[in-house]
Amino acid sequence: MSYSTADRLRTVTLDDVRGAHKMLSGVARTTALEGSRHLSARVGAPVLLKCENLQRTGSFKLRGAYVRIAGLLPEERAAGVVAASAGNHAQGVALASSLLGVRSTVFMPKGAPLPKISATREYGAEVRLHGQVVDESLAAAQKYARETGAVFIHPFDHPDIIAGQGTVGLEILEQCPEVRTIVVGVGGGGLAAGIAVAVKALRPDVRIVGVQAEGAAAYPPSLAAGRPVSLSHPVTMADGIKVGRPGDVPFELVGELVDEVCTVTEDELSAALLLCLERAKLVVEPAGASPVAALLSRPEAFEGPVVAVLSGGNVDPVLMERVLRHGMAAQGRYLAVRLRLTDRPGALASLLGALSVADANVLDVSHMRTDPRLGLTEAEVELHLETKGPAHCAEVQQALRDAGYTVMG
């Protein structure tokens, strides 16, 4: 097991969170709480963004990792610590260990983004690449702990981790005493549980809403069953909340203290990430954008003032490009079409002229002449276009039809 029986039975209290807050003084930043006029207009009440994407290491994970490692006995520190992660927890453990003078080893999947691997090493951890997915890295880390005596630092399933993450809740109450709703992404549940412990003890009237990705939503069936339930194949772009089973310790707290756990789609996550970048000027990873996705999908469901916790900003640039395009498509600002035309000189220029008249910006053109599906004098063109919204997409497609082209998709 990743924690002792005593740890598993131990609950987390407001005093624990307050103690963690003192411990983190001078270590973790008190991150900004920024207002969002766009989201406020959508919700019809003030919406503020808790910018944990600007925390040291780029996410809230440093808080819990530091509290957990700082609480180790001297002989445990001497044995070192080990963790498994694809990114945020890895960096949190690496920096916390370096600050505390503890040796750390972090197992990461072989396919982990290179910027996250490099950052984890730069924060001082020994990185070992093992397996294709985090579960395989996790098994390797636990084996390493058994063989070497290193202390395994779980990303969410330990009271000290939860207490550390709960300091986000204390900061929210200090920065926005009038808050009525807090919206937070949920993976294993450590952040939501910690915030709930702190906030409900001081302000039981504040509504706390957890958000999961639709394809990796283990909490709704678990809460319905009254016990943690595992998902066989969680699927989402939001790797920060891509967790197949709730943690035992946070599950009890989430079930008792969190008012609702809702889900958002991949399209909604993409649109939220795009909004954070364009309107708030904040780089946020998909998991960190999940509270914004919930606000966009159900703006009427949240009483204000609302605080949305942007839990992290460590997004791989390659994923960012894909997600932004996906978000643009979801908003009708990106259109991909295929059509056939006669393969003759000037045919492509005529097509581009029709698109110019329709005021569509051409991002990419793929011109194919050799597919066996095509006639001898035919060519197929795939176009990626920047558009101005769903109505403009429809106008562009109609303009192409009016010009005599057969639009295939």
UniProtKB/TrEMBL annotation:
GO biological process: isoleucine biosynthetic process; L-serine catabolic process; L-threonine catabolic process
Class in the EC hierarchy, top level: lyase
Domain (ACT) ranges: 336-409
Record keyword Lyase present: yes
A molecular function (GO) term: threonine deaminase activity
Enzyme Commission designation: 4.3.1.19
InterPro entries cross-referenced by the UniProt entry: ACT_dom, ACT_ThrD-II-like, Ser/Thr_Dehydratase, Ser/Thr_deHydtase_PyrdxlP-BS, Thr_deHydtase_catblc, TrpB-like_PALP, TrpB-like_PALP_sf
Alphabetical UniProt keywords: Allosteric enzyme, Lyase, Pyridoxal phosphate
Cofactor annotation: pyridoxal 5'-phosphate
Pathway entry: Amino-acid degradation; L-threonine degradation via propanoate pathway; propanoate from L-threonine: step 1/4
Keyword Transferase: no
PROSITE patterns in the record: ACT, DEHYDRATASE_SER_THR
Subunit structure: In the native structure, TdcB is in a dimeric form, whereas in the TdcB-AMP complex, it exists in a tetrameric form (dimer of dimers).
Family to which this protein belongs: Belongs to the serine/threonine dehydratase family.
Protein name: L-threonine dehydratase catabolic TdcB
Organism this protein belongs to: Streptomyces gancidicus BKS 13-15
